[in-house]
Prior knowledge:
Keywords: Signal, Transport. By secondary structure, the chain is α+β, with helices and mostly antiparallel strands.
Amino acid sequence: MRNKLLLLTLLTFSSLLQAEDMVLTEEQEANWQIKVHLPEKSEKLPLGEFIAEVVTPPTLLHTISLPFEANVKKLNVANFQQIAKGQVLAKVTGTEWIATQQQAISDAIAFKHHENLAQRKNMLCKEEIIPQKECIAANVELESDKTKVAASKALLRSYGASDEVIMTLFKELKLSQTIQISSDVSGRIVALDATPGKSTSPQDALFVIQEKGALWLESDISVGRTQALKEGQEVEITLGTHTFSTTILQLSPVINPHNQTRHVRFLVPIEIALFSGLRTTANITVAHHSYKIKKNSVIKYDDKQIVFVKTKTGYKSVPIHILTEDDSYYYVKPSVALQHKIATTSLAILKNMLGGDDE
């Protein structure tokens, strides 16, 4: 507490050192018709209006593609359709899909054969009819076939086959000409690159599904306007008919050299009905303590912006630090001097008393 009081005293003393007093008589003040107003405290700092765009976070976008060349046999959904988790989107076929099933069937048959063989040999080994080494060899071969079967099942799963399809294939040893493509998530299709009869390759994104979740609002803001910003800071944004409170997610650590801006990303609350791709003007206000003073109260003097604070004997000039502005007001850094009334008229006369040129 002592340190805080000392710092406040030093700041106040420093401000007074920079101030220049001007003594005025009542007659002079009346003749010059000097009007005053009291600066208003403000907890909100208008950052300004900026072009902003609503974008979808990459974590909400789910892409479905196939690891093999295929042909679309049937399409069950349309672009922009709402879908549920597990819903069948399409049926496809392909030579790799058929060949993979054939290999899986071959592995299953070999496993079954060596399983029966190992069982018979193990019984004969127990009765000491055949050498123990034949049983060991049979069991090693059986374990090798187990590994092959597990690998075949894993490959089928990577192709999109469900556990039910795999179980049926190994049980019935019968090929399926097509495979179903199902969605792993619920959401809405926002990109569709599949049509009946179309041939696809592994690099093709057949479906892009957007899950429900909070979107982002992004804008490029001039460097000067971002000085009071920091990640996690609360802000208020007006976008069209929507006004909402949110936070700054990310603030670019680099400046765009072409337009001297920083990229700022805000979180759009999930309950705000906005759509990805919307590009419009956003009015942004940040939570920040400041003083709000009329623009006609400020004048330039010796490369500084100053105001004239009312005293018992006249006025004194006080430099100010402007944080931002709107059409009518400057929002300035708080100081003890701004707790008093300041002049709004006849600033040029008061400035001349300091010996400066009019601006």
